[in-house]
Amino acid sequence: MTQRIEDYALIGDLQTAALVGRDGSIDWLCLPRFDSAACFASLLGDDENGHWRIAPAGAGNCTRRSYRGESLVLESVWETATGTVKITDFMPQRDTAPDIMRIVEGVTGEVEMAGTLRLRFDYGSVIPWMRRSDGHRVAVAGPDSVWLRSEPEVRTWGHQFSTCSSFTVAAGEKVAFVLTWHPSEEPRPPLVDPHEALADALEDWHEWSERCRYQGPYREAVIRSLISLKALTFAPTGGIVAAPTTSLPEEIGGVRNWDYRFCWLRDSTLTLGALLACGYLEEAAAWRDWLLRAVAGAPGDLQIMYGLAGERRLPETELEWLRGHEGSAPVRTGNGAVTQLQLDVYGEVIDSLYLARTSGLADEPHAWRLQLALLGFLESRWREPDEGLWEVRGPRRHFVHSKVMAWVAADRAVRTLEAEPKLHGDVERWRRMRDEVHQEVCEKGFDKERNTFTQSYGCSDLDAATLLIPQVGFLPPDDPRVIGTVDAVRRELCHDGLVRRYSAAGPAVDGLPGGEGTFLVCSFWLADALRLTGRVKEAEALLEKLLSLRNDVGLLAEEYDPVAGRQLGNFPQAFSHIGLVNTALGLARALGAPEEDAG
């Protein structure tokens, strides 16, 4: 049975992550890091490209599943004719080597289980050599080795370059499987007790979740989104990947398939705001510090995205042997958009550092000098066209959002110098830049006849990013131009109440054929704009609708197809969950939740 994007759940160890289907198959896993080559890649191909399934013999999808409490420990239950069985899937926060642990537990009766482990390194292209060693099944190919054991040991055999298993569990019985990756030149990794590891993992997650100071409306959705964001954090550096997957399609059968296993600067302010509002100061500081390291260097070299540790070279390649999710090719690794000019990122970085400074994070002495250097570069370039927030692969334009974020950069510098006049900087210089940008955007980026800001100068297309204008403070929410823009977006960009990124897809706009679904974070932005413009009940109704689009374990992809009723794009998507958290917190304040509860 083909699994849809929303049929998957996420497990991870804060350095990589796996997707587990409703059918009990792990179909995506990159080891040892988020951006490493996958050893299970059937998500983007078929079973021959690697997967690991454990389920009742002959069974399909599980009867039900959920995370245990406020954790990333997944429990899937099958009710069969002979009994009920539960599989607990998790990845403990690693000591040295990454582990995936799967504990099969009989609940009632007696259930015959079947397992298939099909390891394929390098995104499903390399079949490893399998052998037995010291109670393990060991797979080796080049630099990779994977060790599999069970407790108690179950019967396994090789079949068509796979490891198969068969066993029976009765009520009260448990069988645990541990799969461990480590470099092939090293000796066997140390043994880890899976039951102790489960107890530790639950304790770790519950302790982390208890740090969330938000107790207002929609808390269940907020904490699940925060757990997802934590799971997308690369703990050694503090970087947060946009998603743990590559090439999940924005249109089934289409070519808009991109690698999101990197860290985008565009997410920085909203991510930082969500973490700070919910009391996660350590994570916010780690993200801020990652940001400072990543963007260090010549201001003109600022990229829109970086690797997990701030790597800059992310060359885009197509994996021709993978057919793509539901035939959506090509499958890509790396991301060619890394070389684009997106001037809005300067504003996003400066806004993030301003937010960190004003929220009480310990100041980094060089952060202000870096902001001035970035602002000085932007001052000389903001008048140029660029590729814009949405990374279009068509011609450069004067995107309104990019100009608005140039205004944000100058505005935050002015605010900082006004609050701390002892800092080095020419406040009048940045006031002049701020005023000049503001005047030009209002003259060239606003359609007076339709009473709306447009996507770019001189065009009639709309862009959902203009919904951010009141949120960043470019204009007050009660300005008629803001209200007109919100109304125009609802009228022209909405499909079944959900928001598309811009007016039309296709080569004329972004250089690519085909279309895409509605963009979930844009729909959260609409809810924010409705709240800011006084339409709180409408904002609340939209948030409720968006919450209903989450899958059964509370996860969201990048996009949603309202016609087919399914999620699209890379999954789970940090930007979507950041939008959920910030919209919920904003509505909680608007609905009168106490400050300590509303973040």
Task: Characterize this entry briefly.
The protein has 599 residues and is α+β, with helices and mostly antiparallel strands.
Share in β-strands: 15-25%
Span between termini = 42 Å
Note the total helix count: 16
| Coarse shape | globular
The radius of gyration computed from the alpha-carbon positions, rounded to a whole number of angstroms, is: 25 Å
Mean pLDDT: 94
Helix and strand composition category: alpha+beta
User: What proportion of the residues is helical, as a percent range?
Assistant: 25-40%
Identify low-pLDDT runs.
none
**Main sheet makeup:** 15 strands, antiparallel
Number of strands: 28
Could you explain the architecture of this structure?
- With 599 residues, this protein is of the alpha+beta class.
- The protein contains 16 helices and 28 strands.
- The strands form seven sheets. The protein has a 15-stranded antiparallel beta sheet that branches. A three-stranded antiparallel beta sheet has the order 26-27-28.
- A hairpin with a 7-residue loop joins strand 3 and strand 4.
- The longest helix has 20 residues.
- The protein is globular, with a radius of gyration of 25 Å.
